[in-house]
Design brief:
116 residues, 0% strand, Gibberellin-regulated family protein, signal, GASA
Length: 116
């Protein structure tokens, strides 16, 4: 009986520890992403490099941008994320990222493009 109680206590502590670590990882990832976006957009989140779209226009523009790819779901997910942050989606189906500096300069941790 005592051994069972100790085992349950150890399991509860382990679950709480894992939960705390996961929440801190999420906070760290969000903070890193926000820091990178501020760096891309300019200091303090000013609208340097942002486009003139309204966030309500993003789904339509991303559907256009991702219409020719085989990988529609990831393309739409990242395009919408980038559009909402940058308020811009480049013309065409591929390339033309120089039209949207924020969209073009937002990179992954590995240095690859974040926005399709």
């Amino acid at each position: 009986m005592v051994a069972m109680a100790k085992l349950l206590l150890v399991l509860a502590v382990a679950i709480l520890t894992i939960s705390m670590v996961e929440s801190r990882l999420k906070e760290t990832n969000n903070a890193e992403e926000q820091h990178q976006l501020e760096r891309v957009n300019g200091q303090g989140g000013q609208k340097n490099g942002k486009g003139s779209l309204q966030s309500s226009q993003c789904p339509e523009q991303c559907l256009r941008r991702c219409s020719q790819t085989r990988y529609k779901k990831p393309c739409l997910f990242f395009c919408l994320k980038c559009c909402r942050a940058c308020l811009c989606v480049p013309s065409g189906y591929y390339g033309n990222k120089e039209e949207c500096p924020c969209y073009n300069n937002w990179k992954t941790k590995r240095g690859g493009p974040r926005c399709p």
